[in-house]
Amino acid sequence: MGKCTDVEPFIIILAQRPTMVDKEDLRSQFVDAFQEADYPISSPMDLVPALPGGPSTKFESGDFSMTAMELNTKLNGEFPYDNVDAFVDDVMASLEDQDLI
């Protein structure tokens, strides 16, 4: 029986392939974390009391992992926000625009 030598490189590449981000799961994490903020919010500081782990609250999906503090540096949104959905929509759009998710 012959030996197949072409499979090993494929297996290595497959194992190194990045894990896709589940955007719906990530969105749900954001909503859960930010929904208790006192809306309307006028700055990122208005969100801190709502976060379960404060600024070190971590959001993870696939290869994406970012704390709330890191997330704040990636946002393109314009405050104020009247509700959690408007804020999370902008968070997701900012991350997509920067190819982070």
TrEMBL record:
Spell out the Pfam families in the cross-references.
MTH865 (PF07747)
Q: Which InterPro entries match?
A: MTH865-like_sf, Uncharacterised_MTH865
**In its UniProt entry, what is this protein called?**
MTH865-like family protein
